[in-house]
Amino acid sequence: MPKRALAQKRPFLLLSIAAALAFYYLRVSELPELYLIPLKGSAVGLLAVYAFVRHASADARLYVWALGAAALGDMAIEIDVTVGGLLFFLHHVLAMGLLLKHRRPAIGIHSWICGVTLICVPLAGYLLPYDPDAKLQTALYALSLGGMAASAWASDFPRFRVGAGAMLFVVSDLILFAEMGPLSGTQWAELLVWPLYYLGMFLMCTGVIQTLSKRDPQLRVVK
């Protein structure tokens, strides 16, 4: 019954999950990598479609653009790491635009989490890569990543969905940074990146859109 309800009411979420699982398992198959690129991009791309068809607010549309940038980044990074990184940088900036618009009136004791995230994520982006030429570039990207995650935790969206999802995104990227240094060639690290990243994006997307739908039910596209 839950699966049937998901298929009928949230078909794009179901398709997104299917695409994410298919990419995760097929990437170790003999299927040419060129065919896996659109499959990889469709996982978050379908989350963008879900966001688009669920709510018609300006905030939802802004988040659709953020998800679209991430989906393009997923594909581009398989071809050019710099282009992919720039697209994810764009995702973080667009997502921050939405999250900062929905700041909590008072962060309280959670402010230390935001502060640690803002400081430690860029610092890790600088320290973890072994290549001196990659350190500054990675740190600048990590600054936008940390800003996005801190903004998610400081927003009035559900922390254990949107905030936690952003932190999962951070963990997945920290593993990527570590693969440029101390975790280079570590198989288990490579296996964790995609599940952590996709789960983080899924939690953030559903948390944002369902919250917007509850706050402005008259703007729901799908009843």
UniProtKB/TrEMBL annotation:
Q: Which organism is it from?
A: Aurantiacibacter xanthus
Q: What name appears for this protein in its UniProt entry? A: Lysoplasmalogenase
Presence of the UniProt keyword Heme in the record: no
User: For this UniProt entry, what is the primary localization, expressed as one broad class?
Assistant: membrane
Stored InterPro entries: TMEM86B-like (IPR012506)
Subcellular location, record wording: Membrane
| Lineage: superkingdom | Bacteria
Phylogenetic lineage:
Bacteria, Pseudomonadati, Pseudomonadota, Alphaproteobacteria, Sphingomonadales
Instruction: For this UniProt record, give its keywords in alphabetical order, as a comma-separated list.
Output: Membrane, Transmembrane, Transmembrane helix
Could you confirm whether the keyword Membrane appears in this record? yes
What family name appears in the similarity comment? Belongs to the TMEM86 family.
